[in-house]
Design brief:
478 residues; alpha/beta; five-stranded parallel beta sheet; globular
């Protein structure tokens, strides 16, 4: 695979970013891609591993050494075919996936993993540029109808796979546009939305029907879907946010990260303010912003706040500060817990760890600060440090503390499906069947808050399970 001595001759060189001073003035993507020659050199570093652990690190089991070698050989079309054989939407994962494959790369033992994510993104981007990506030839119709609820990565992957084997597939999406969290939760500076639009065009040409602004459980009942479809796939995501349960959290300056991000994404899409912000305009302009939560959503709030012209941005996290570098002997090839600094962090933010929020401070009904305290962690248990209280100045507090499962009112209550102890829909990863006949569940609605790449995997596997149940056998890959 690749060049036998490539990893000895060449160091890892990943994509770069435009300068913060330039990119903070817009919401477009700002990654500076490799040249073709640079990509070939980086692909040549892929070793001929006896066991390519990158396969296991990647949730969709991408054929990473195969398409790395094909890029090294300048065989881009076959690289694209290999990439699409396991991943319906590599342009999504090539932009927003945290790349657990790279953590599993053998060369990561010496902190020099192959630039897998960058190569993946370059392959599919070139495929679109060259016109190599087109609707698949339709299969003979089976006469079976499948309803897919939710147009995030799990729902889209499931729908595309089912349509390609001849089923009539309708995707129901409660929002006005397709994409779910990718559309409204991920800022355009990380993933521009024309990427979703062109996949939707491809899928429509393959026979998928999309019904937007249609909420199952409200506009259409589960009973109606049961009467009109042979199978139902629930892929609506985990949208129930974790609440901040401290005094003052009810003040108007305490808002959900998803509301903040969604508004800005709609503005970027060209929506008028009354459509983008039906509950009133929410921006960080001129404000001292505190983001509670240290994950990707919190990072997205940081980048968006800076673009809106926040006076200051502070991001706090209840967990302790991770180490700068992981202990490879304990973690490799698994995903390590270590300090990660995103492009948004590099644009300007104060970060703090092991911080307990105690009270939102307000005056005349407006947020003025956040009272916090220091924590000590030992053996997985936290303890407040006596006398460590402090107040952070704040005009706007954004809650990016994750999600606790899918919303139950409406669709889930009507379906009667059993739930897990964590509140997710109960279904295994073989049949993906729920407790109700011919109702399936996949993605975050089944597994809880997770990655786009895991959602694509589950959507693909659910499509095979549904096809097998409807037809007795299935030619779809898992």
């Amino acid at each position: 695979m690749g060049k036998e001595t490539g990893f000895l001759e060449l160091d890892r060189q990943d994509r770069t970013y435009a300068d913060p001073a330039e990119r903070l003035g817009h919401y477009r993507e700002f990654v500076v891609p490799h040249s073709e020659d640079g990509l070939k050199k980086q692909a040549s570093r892929c070793m001929n591993c006896g066991i390519p652990y990158c396969h296991n690190g990647c949730p969709v089991n991408n054929l990473i050494p195969d398409w790395n070698h094909l890029v090294y050989e300048s065989d881009w079309q076959n690289a694209l075919e290999a990439l699409h054989s396991t991943n319906n939407f590599p342009e999504f994962t090539g932009r927003v996936c945290p790349a657990p494959c790279e953590a599993s790369c053998t060369l990561n033992i010496v902190d020099q993993p192959v630039t897998i994510k960058s190569i993946e993104c370059a392959i599919v981007d070139r495929g679109w540029q060259e016109g190599w990506i087109s609707p698949a030839e339709p299969a003979p119709p089976t006469g079976k109808r499948v309803a897919v609820v939710g147009s995030g990565p799990a729902g889209l992957a499931c729908a595309q796979q089912l349509a390609r084997v001849g089923h009539s597939v309708t995707v129901f999406e409660k929002s006005d546009r397709l994409g779910g969290l990718m559309r409204y939760g991920i800022p355009d500076f990380k993933m521009e939305k024309h990427l979703i639009n062109r996949r939707a065009v491809q899928m429509e040409a393959e026979g998928v029907t999309f019904r937007t602004s249609t909420e199952v459980g409200v506009d259409v009942s589960i009973k109606s879907l049961r009467e009109n479809f042979d199978a139902i796939v629930l892929a609506g995501g985990a949208e129930n946010p974790r609440a901040l349960q401290i005094p003052g959290a009810e003040l108007p300056g305490v808002r959900l990260a998803m509301e903040f991000l969604t508004q800005q994404n709609k503005r970027v899409a060209g929506d008028h303010e009354e459509r983008a912000a039906p509950r009133g305009t929410l921006t960080a302009t001129g404000k001292h912003v505190i983001v509670i939560g240290g994950g990707d959503t919190g990072s997205d709030c940081v980048g968006t706040s800076n673009r809106q012209g926040a006076a200051s941005v502070t991001q706090i996290e209840i967990m302790p500060r991770p180490p700068e570098k992981e202990d490879k002997s304990l973690t490799w090839p698994h995903w390590p817990m270590k300090l990660r600094t995103s492009s948004s962090h590099e644009e300007g933010v104060e970060r703090d760890w092991a911080v307990l929020t105690k009270e939102v401070v307000g005056e005349n009904g407006q947020v003025t600060g956040l009272r916090c305290a220091r924590l000590e962690w030992e053996g997985g248990q936290m303890r407040e440090v006596p006398g460590s209280e402090f107040v952070l100045r704040a005009d706007l507090i954004l809650l990016a503390m994750g999600f606790v499962g899918p919303k139950r009112a409406g669709m889930i209550d009507q379906s009667g499906v059993a739930l897990t102890d964590r509140g997710n829909i109960a279904a295994d990863t073989v049949s993906y069947r729920t407790s109700e006949d011919m109702i399936y569940a996949c993605g975050d609605m089944r597994r809880g808050q997770s990655l786009v790449v895991w959602a694509i995997r589950e959507g693909r596997q659910t499509a095979r399970a549904v096809d097998e149940a409807l037809m007795g056998v299935s030619s779809l890959p898992r």
